[in-house]
Design brief:
Length: 238
């Protein structure tokens, strides 16, 4: 397998994740470079979906990168292994589905949901005319709902079951917004040399920002604040 590949995605984060899967390594094992989009200045390019390309090169030695050994990285390292016991996951899926059937009848029967298992993860999608109110301000209601469904899925289980809830494709849309925000702010920081502190974000959103900045060699980021007020600070490396 080549030590260097070019990977594509709708966002920088997605392109990086796709490349890491192809190489079969973690982010700390590669150098990442965001490539300029082809035909970027073409008039017709506005008619085609945005494609981000990144080049991933495996480092000769597995070493820690001082540029990205930030507080944000420390947060991401501890991970609990999720269950790959399909019988347990199926049981949890059935419990979540039973809850959703009853819950939708009480809330709004116009809502529709799909629930499936993919890569040992229970994926729940909710759509409908009333689904917008379930997303909440920057996804706070959606995240609260996911916590509830995860609790139901994990109730009585000896192993941790992974569940992801999405409503009206909100997560993908939010990821694109954060990816574009990170790219824009990074370019501003490089130009002005002044650090920028972003709005408070969830750990999931801060991870998207961090991944989007991987291609900027002269940019570093860390988090400040506690709990719901935790924010990402983007700075230029001096």
């Amino acid at each position: 397998m080549s030590n260097s590949i070019i990977s594509e995605g709708k966002t920088t984060n997605e392109a990086i994740e796709n490349g890491l899967k192809q190489l079969g390594v973690s982010k700390d094992r590669v150098d990442i470079k965001v490539l300029e989009e082809e035909n970027k200045k073409s008039f017709f390019s506005i008619l085609t979906p945005r494609v981000v390309k990144v080049e991933l090169t495996i480092k000769e030695k597995a070493e820690k990168s001082s540029n990205y050994e930030t507080k944000e990285n420390v947060e991401e390292k501890p991970r609990r292994e999720y269950s790959q016991n399909m019988e347990a996951i199926e049981n949890s899926k059935n419990k979540v589905e039973e809850f959703l059937k009853s819950w939708i009848k009480k809330v709004d029967e116009s809502l529709e949901y799909t629930i499936k298992i993919e890569d040992y993860t229970i994926l729940v999608d909710i759509n409908g005319t009333a689904s917008g109110m379930m997303i909440g301000y920057r996804g706070d209601t959606l995240n609260a709902m996911q916590t509830i469904l995860s609790s139901i899925a994990n109730n009585g289980q000896n192993e941790k079951i992974k569940l992801i809830l999405d409503i009206e494709n909100y997560r993908e849309k939010r990821e694109k917004v954060l990816d574009e925000l990170a790219q824009k702010v990074a370019k501003t920081v490089l130009k002005t040399g002044k650090s920028v502190t972003l709005e408070p974000m969830t750990p999931y959103e801060r991870k998207i920002i961090h991944n989007s900045l991987q291609g900027f060699e002269k940019i570093e980021n860390h988090s400040i604040g506690e709990g719901d007020n935790r924010r990402v600070v983007i700075s230029k490396i001096k």
